Amino acid sequence: MMKLHDLIEIVDDENSFLAFVEALKKDRENAIALEKKNPSSPHDSDAGGWENVTIESFLEAAHAWAIDSDFGASQGLSSDNIWKKMATFLYCGKIYE
């Protein structure tokens, strides 16, 4: 199974974007299951590496990443591939602090 950050690299159309969204959903479900078995510290990311575990914090982080990075432009993300841009936006909802 590919890691999420690797999947982002191959997102280039509607189908690959939807495959990424499905993988992100499964990643979250796995993190929830791991947390139930062995809760992590409330001051760290959860067992699946999720920094933002509520929809509010997830969207806030994705939005902050988009603002801070000029929607990835300052990180070299091409504006030619909107599907990859949106996948990166969602991924940053998971990891951006």
From TrEMBL:
This is DUF7660 domain-containing protein. It comes from the Bacteria. Residues 15-97 form the DUF7660 domain. It comes from Gynuella sunshinyii YC6258. It holds the Pfam family DUF7660.
